[in-house]
Design the sequence.
């Protein structure tokens, strides 16, 4: 892949990415029929824009959406930054308990997770009146979306990012959690080049037994598996793996292969007839073979995350080792660009 992409291609790609984002209400969030318990021991802090002294001072808003906003907090005594998600008020159709369960869901999914490629969740804070809820999380400053857009990383760096994403997802799947909304906006990088998966608002626990199916497609259509778009129920773990393939393709080509994996889409239809149409860059044949093993139309035929990690570690002539084994200079240019362009 060329070290830089044309501005027109970038503009087209990121325009597609923004316009194709499509979230839908689904019946297995927080879980497929589950109702998570709510701990009142962590629900004693009044909010209204103030989460108390434990997490420092609010600096600025990082992002805002329909259901929540995320603010940056700084704790001077420990020199720590935190991302604090504040959920907006309950919908008219929600009871107070339903609203609390929806807000608590992400904390319930992530509170016990411990992996360097998964964002850490520290606390769930609820007002006494149960009208405001906040989630306190680890802050990672750099969006992979912006990194691809601005820093235009090279082949080996992109594969290092991808390996870290796969490692995080492998950990989630080992813990019977499907993310269901993998996309560049939901991948962040810290100041050491460590990539982290964020935003578990649509994640759900699919096991261990009995294995539960996901219900309803969520996320950005271009990354959603064909079975999630065409069926009411589908395997969330295997659908995540499809999204990995589209994610890697988009990181390599600065574009999506199609806007949606539907029969009505001409690009997807061409892929079904001849998967070789995806090969568009000078990346190694082994990388394209890997993408082909991920983007299998039959979900059970897709390569698993642990097998992807094995293949990345055996690529020739340049294997993709775990991030801890990466030479320090691999991410030096990207980190310097990020530090200069994306100041706190």
Sequence:
């Amino acid at each position: 892949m060329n070290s830089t992409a044309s501005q027109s291609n970038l503009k087209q790609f990121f325009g597609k990415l923004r316009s194709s984002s499509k979230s839908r209400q689904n019946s297995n969030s927080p879980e497929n029929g589950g109702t998570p318990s709510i701990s009142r021991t962590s629900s004693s802090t009044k909010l209204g824009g103030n989460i108390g002294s434990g997490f420092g001072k609010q600096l600025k808003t990082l992002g805002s959406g329909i259901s929540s906003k995320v603010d940056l907090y700084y704790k001077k005594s420990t020199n720590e930054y935190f991302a604090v998600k504040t959920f907006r008020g309950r919908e008219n159709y929600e009871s107070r308990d339903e609203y609390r369960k929806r807000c608590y869901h992400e904390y319930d999914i992530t509170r016990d997770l411990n992996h360097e490629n998964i964002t850490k969740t520290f606390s769930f804070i609820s007002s006494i009146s149960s009208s405001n809820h906040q989630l306190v999380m680890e802050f990672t400053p750099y969006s992979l979306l912006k990194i691809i857009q601005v820093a235009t990383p090279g082949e080996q760096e992109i594969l290092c990012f991808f390996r870290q994403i796969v490692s995080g997802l492998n950990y989630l799947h080992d813990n019977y959690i499907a993310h269901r909304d993998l996309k560049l906006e939901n991948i962040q990088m810290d100041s050491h080049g460590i990539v982290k998966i964020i935003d578990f608002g649509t994640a759900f626990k699919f096991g261990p037994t009995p294995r539960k199916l996901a219900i309803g497609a969520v996320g950005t259509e271009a990354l959603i598996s064909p079975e999630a778009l065409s069926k009411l129920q589908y395997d969330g773990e295997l659908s995540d793996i499809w999204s990995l393939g589209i994610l890697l393709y988009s990181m390599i080509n600065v574009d999506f292969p199609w806007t949606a994996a539907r029969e009505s889409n001409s690009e997807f239809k061409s892929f079904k007839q001849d998967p070789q149409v995806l090969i568009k860059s000078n990346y190694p044949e082994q990388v394209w073979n890997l993408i082909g093993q991920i983007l299998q139309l039959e979900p059970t035929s897709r390569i698993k995350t642990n097998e992807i990690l094995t293949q990345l570690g055996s690529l020739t002539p340049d294997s993709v080792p775990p991030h801890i084994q990466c030479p320090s200079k691999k991410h030096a240019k990207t980190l310097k660009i990020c530090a200069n362009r994306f100041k706190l």
